[in-house]
Write a structure and sequence with these properties.
The chain contains 24 helices and 16 strands. The protein is of the alpha/beta class. It folds into three domains: 161 residues, Substrate Binding Domain Of Dnak, Chain:A, Domain 2 (Up-down Bundle); 145 residues, Rossmann fold; 209 residues, Rossmann fold, CATH 3.40.50.2030. It has a six-stranded parallel β-sheet with strand order 6-5-4-7-8-9. Strands 13-12-11-14-15-16 form a six-stranded parallel β-sheet, sandwiched between helices. Strands 1-2 form a two-stranded antiparallel sheet. The radius of gyration is 24 Å and the shape is globular.
Length: 626
């Protein structure tokens, strides 16, 4: 499947470190992927079922083998069940992330979350008002306690709809109500999906998939939106700040600590410990010049957005970063953490530490972080990392870091526009910005690392389409130089003019993958300003290299919100052509948007440009030939 290292990864640091890892005899994700070939065709098509012990079953979509499972479920039912469960798992993961943050907010309010505080009181008060919590004349901690209680009710109490649905355009909310997919409770929708897909419950594939949209919406307009907003309250709302990316952010003369995962509850405390005079003095006593904290994946994005902490890499770089021999400790929380990391680290001197009560990994030391002990635990593990500096062997850091700019919250974008989205709307109306695209998602070893992200982004910005990105693609685009002031040279003339006037790059880093909801909030503001629905806007979404169940949920809540979304890898649905047709065509008539699947980013860019121009024409805006 792979002929050379260049077929596996696009960035220079990835190629050089993969070459070293292979020379060191370290097995990486690409080797394990190769060893799995050929992968199961039934599973790839979503046509296998193991939800009960009468199976496992599979159906043959080509008509040569069984057409029903033991229970009588056909391809449509089996594929719908599998996709529904995939979306449920993805919605649960991001929403549970949000729950963890709400618990910290409650701990801050009652004084049990030691070391945490409220960094953005203005946002606390605005969000509390959205939830109907009294704010006038009240202290911040009292408001925080009541807000945490109100948010916890969104998780478990049966309502007509979640509180933050009010942010969506009125037309979109009416459509959800008409379709019966208004999410009533975050946990309820996930629990109901698991119930519906139990053997002998919902056996109408269309009904299952409608609930899948409701389940995804409970994450996008519920759990994930709560996670982002509470993170801003606790750790600060991001503002643009300089940073650096790639493996070159590691330092030969400093203690290097990497944080990995998704939850800033841990990484914020690690940062505080690394900055403390006590730990800095200890590092210097051990012969190091200091302590260098860097991130990978979305925990790193959280720190980058608020503090400018550099990013060493994205998902498929996690093993390769260890192969530098420069990482004294990697600290993980949860999500997108390969269980291989402990084994890879054992080939070097790196200590691996897990921190979450719900995520343990082989060959890692476990130091469980909770709101009441996180500050103490952070000092404990940072001390261990400093001590481990003395065990270093040969270090290989083959590249220099690339400068970048991150930290574009909705508030920061609107602030740069003078406090209103009107200048952005005027630029879109005039055609200087043709439209906007959110590029999100992961890396996948089935696709050359970062190639889909970087190629699609390049083609869009050169055609005057503004790009906002999150998660792993944000790191890929930063490595490619798209987030420097000089990057406007790569943009089309209209986008170049607007970005130059605002002093921003043509690609805006919107945060971690849970922060995709910032895109929904911005789109809602634009739709309200234009007096239309999100589905009427000249916008699109894309996940060129997605792999995770979270990405499936994200894609569904974007489409259900009215955003045309182009995927790179095909979801496991081709066992049912009815479902393929619904997802790629039929949903247009249901929610005003569909999925498209196009693994070639050059062709994906063309699909997106055509969609944007169609929407411009429908709004009466000047169109361009594509």
């Amino acid at each position: 499947m792979y002929d050379t290292i260049k077929d596996k990864t696009l960035p220079q640091d990835g190629q050089l470190l993969l070459k070293k890892a292979e020379a060191d005899g370290v097995e990486t994700v690409w080797a394990r992927h190769q060893a799995q070939q050929p992968q199961c065709g039934y599973c790839e098509m979503g046509a296998s079922c193991r939800i009960c012990i009468m199976g496992p079953c599979r159906v043959d979509p080509f008509g040569q083998g069984p057409q029903q499972g033991v229970c009588g479920a056909d391809a449509d039912i089996i594929v719908a069940r599998n996709l529904g469960r995939m979306i449920a798992a993805g919605a649960a993961s991001h929403s549970d992330h949000g729950r963890d943050l709400v618990e910290v907010l409650a701990g801050v309010a009652d004084g049990t979350a030691l070391g945490y505080t409220i960094r953005d009181e203005d946002k606390l008060r605005r969000l509390a008002a959205e939830y109907g919590v009294a704010v006038d004349g009240r202290e911040a901690l009292a408001i925080a306690g009541d807000l945490a209680d109100a948010m916890q009710e969104d998780y478990g109490t049966r309502k007509k709809g979640l509180a933050l649905l009010a942010r969506a355009p009125e037309a979109r909310r009416a459509l959800w109500q008409k379709l019966g997919i208004t999410p009533r409770g975050i946990d309820r929708e996930t629990s109901e999906m698991m119930h519906r897909t139990h053997m002998g419950v919902d056996n109408d594939w269309q009904s299952i998939l409608l609930h899948a949209l409701r389940n995804a919406l409970s994450d996008g307009w519920g759990g994930s939106m709560i996670a982002t907003e509470v993170s801003d309250i606790l750790y600060g709302t991001p503002t643009p700040r300089p940073t650096a990316v790639n493996a070159g952010v590691l330092k030969k003369d400093q203690v290097n600590i990497i944080v990995h995962g998704h939850n800033p509850v841990v990484s914020e405390m690690i940062l505080q410990a690394c900055l403390s005079d006590e730990m800095t003095a200890l590092a210097q006593a051990k012969g190091a010049a200091g302590i260098n904290l860097a991130g990978v994946c979305c925990t790193g994005n959280e720190l980058l957005m608020r503090h400018g902490v550099p990013m060493a890499g994205n998902h498929l770089m996690t093993e390769l970063i260890l192969s530098t021999g420069a990482v004294d400790m990697m600290i993980v929380d949860y999500q997108c953490i390969m269980p291989s990391l402990g084994t890879v680290a054992s080939c070097y001197h790196t200590k691996m530490v897990s921190t979450s009560d719900k995520a343990r990994f082989p060959h890692m030391d476990h130091h469980e972080f909770h709101p009441d002990n996180a500050a103490e635990k952070a000092r404990e593990v940072v001390r261990e990392a400093v001590e481990n500096y003395l065990r270093r062997g040969e270090v290989y850091i083959p590249v220099e870091p690339v400068d970048s700019l991150g930290g574009f919250s909705v508030e920061a974008v609107v602030g740069a526009l003078g406090g209103t989205p009107e200048p952005l709307l005027e630029a879109i109306k005039a055609g200087k910005i043709r439209g906007a695209v959110g590029i999100v998602g992961c890396n996948n070893p089935k696709i050359k690392q970062d190639y889909g992200h970087v190629t699609l982004t390049r083609r869009l910005i050169e055609n005057d389409i503004l790009v906002v990105d999150t998660g792993c693609v944000a790191v890929a685009n930063a490595k490619a130089g798209f987030k420097l002031a000089d990057a406007i040279a790569m943009a089309g003339p209209g986008l170049k003019e607007i970005c130059g006037a605002l002093g921003v790059p043509p690609v805006l880093h919107f945060g971690s993958c849970v922060d995709n909801v910032r895109i929904l909030v911005l789109l809602s503001a634009l739709a309200d300003a234009l007096g239309c629905d999100i589905s009427d806007l000249p916008v699109a979404g894309s996940a060129p290299e997605w792999y995770s169940e979270k990405a499936a949920a994200i894609g569904c809540y974007f489409v259900a919100s009215g955003v045309y979304t182009v995927l790179g890898p095909m979801p496991p649905v081709t066992g049912s052509m009815n479902i393929v047709k619904l997802l790629t065509e039929g949903l247009e008539d249901v929610v005003g948007a569909t999925f498209a699947v196009e693994p070639d980013p050059e062709k994906a860019a063309l699909l997106i440009r055509r969609r944007i121009e169609d929407k411009r024409r429908a709004l009466g805006l000047p169109a361009a030939s594509v």
